[in-house]
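Step 1: inspect the first sequence and its tokens.
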Amino acid sequence: METLRPGNFAYGLVVSLGAYFVKKIGALSRLADGEIWNVRSSVRVATRAFRMYNLMTIDMSEPPLIICFGDSLTAGYQSPSPVNPAGRATPYGHMLEKLIGPRARVAISGTCGELTGEMVMRFRSDVLRQRPRYVVILGGSNDLGYEASPQEIMRNLLKMYETARADGIIPIPVTVPSIRVPDADNADAVSWLRHHIAGRQVLNELILEYARLKQLRSLNLFAATADPQSLQLAARYSNDGLHLTTEGYQLCATLLYEHIFRTALDH
């Protein structure tokens, strides 16, 4: 890891910027109003430079870090079943790590039952301070269960996407998978199911549109795991109607590797 010491580039960068701003700030009282904009522009440039320095000081001798961040779908939660009476956890992050091998480290930060607003609150400590190269963000399923609007959820996701990007971290947006209610055989149940699937579709389109706009790689987990006719979570991927089976979590890991990290880690 590069440290601040006389003679190296980082030291020269910090000293030069520091001297520049001492000079500029000392002259502010003599500037006309129209000139203050130039100083503010310089501050923005310097802020970007310090972010670049933050990236430079990452220990490049270690493989890059990928953080899988989210709720119970990131924790890999599976409800108790006849096969696994105590329930189990099969995080896709563990499966992704096996696929990637020594090319990267993978850390899992998933909290069961968490809302996106709560994810925002711990994003700095659990993601930014760890200084990953990538953060895979999957959240919103619990919010939808509490009838939060897709737009409200997206505002929280945007805070995490943009905070990561401002810190030099590449976010990987993941859409929320569908749900499954196989015995929805009356009008009320069908209406409830359609309502909740539609909410997921609206949120997921917002997520994918953001990724397109920012030219980010993303994973459409909804499309990958939904039954194409009913749009419910496919039976083979449904553990309890909300969480994934081991096969579903494995599919998430495989798609992340094949479509994103197989080539992204080469750059």
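Step 2: inspect the second sequence and its tokens, then contrast the two.
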Amino acid sequence: MNDLGHTLDKFQIDAIRAQEKGQNIIVGAPTGSGKIRIAESLIERCFVSNNRAIYIPPTNTLSHQRFRDWSHRFGERVGIETRDVSVRSDASLRIMTNETFRSAIFDHSHSLDAVEYVIFDELQNMTDGVEFLSGTVKQGTAWEECILFAPQHIRFLCLTFPFPNLEELARWLEHVRSQEVIMIRKIDRPIEHACFIEHFGSGTPKIIEQIRASSPEAQKQFLNQPDADVIEFVCTQEELPCLYLCDSHKRCESLAFDYAERELFPFHPEAVTQYDAICHGRGIVQEREAVRLRDCLASGIAFYHEGLLPSLKAVVEQMLIDGLIQLIFITEASVVGSDLPVNSVILDGLEKFDGTRLRYLKPQEYHQMVGRGRRVYACVDPFKTDAETVRHIFNGDFEAFDSHLDLSYATILNLYDRLSVASREKGEQKITKLGNWEIDENDATRSTQYSDWLQKSFCYFQSRNQLNQNATPDDKNFCQWSASTTNPT
């Protein structure tokens, strides 16, 4: 089986066959392995059958990128609804954020009547927001509420990372949707990982052990070696285009201008001509970032971060595809929400500031950031980072996929209003006067319904599983009694 001339992997074929049966699907595969082909196949199938679909990416930036790409491919059948833009809201394919989809469920669920499938892309990033040096992005709980409260006729395609507890997520989805769920997992993706050491060059973590174990005289001689430049090394290996991951906007731009002056790549006057034409057409010629970016592009270099206008990001993406950009300096937060085709990725380091402290990347965070490239170079100081830490980041186990459900006032009020409206529409609301108070006799019934909804959450599902695995018989009996008597009023 092939798709647009590309031979499909087995996991892609299995997912497409599950779509043909109209089943809920969870696909766990590494970043950059081609999960988006599964989504595009489903979208085309919905078009053919005159059904509708909703696509939910993890970031607002990726929403706009998909809208541009798919509008070019599918025309006016594609619309977008985010917090800052709404175009063709009645289209067959609507690109939404998880927050706007949640609002549609609670505020105008009739607009979802013809929706056959909802596609969650990179579901794990909607869970924890992926905290980066540039700040903490929390999307948190909306995805879970969407699955809980979406109309029952809707099927879900969840594209995510190959977590160790993916089966637990599949069982929960099957439980709350009362529909069969097909789980498809792909573990391996051939990425070559290498350390890059300033006075040495490229090597394996074993090089770190050898340097640290050497004599003081050998270490001194090592430090006197000429500096090796990782970007120049990548150029000699013919592994362009390349992404260079930085920890801040300022460092992205500083490095971009620094390397632009080195004239590493052939001068492309057509890059500036194309850039000027696009910026003029979008009316952003005088924007500060547009002017600064223009100074780098003729050298085949660009910067890409959250501070850029979406239109400028679109220009960089298109010029990369056209082969006019060879090197992009990008923030770690931006790389997760992007789809930039490159051959190699460079990490400025293996540490990040998580808002409270500086720590090493977790294996899952590392793989999500570098998954776009075939070859990865992590810049490492052998006297500060030991080889075992590097090996763990490169090849360590991924963390479990956990619920971050937070019972905020907004969630409870939305649920209360949803059930209240349902009672009024059925004519079941009964008001009793008690002094100056009006009491709805259905409050007790709705309280039971609240408890039922909360006990369907992934958070409760996981907690119950953990209890069954670890608790004593007395603990289990108490939990069952507590759950049966819970009344969240």
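Step 3: confirm your contrast with the notes below.
The first helix runs from residue 10 to 20. The first strand starts at residue 2 and ends at 3.
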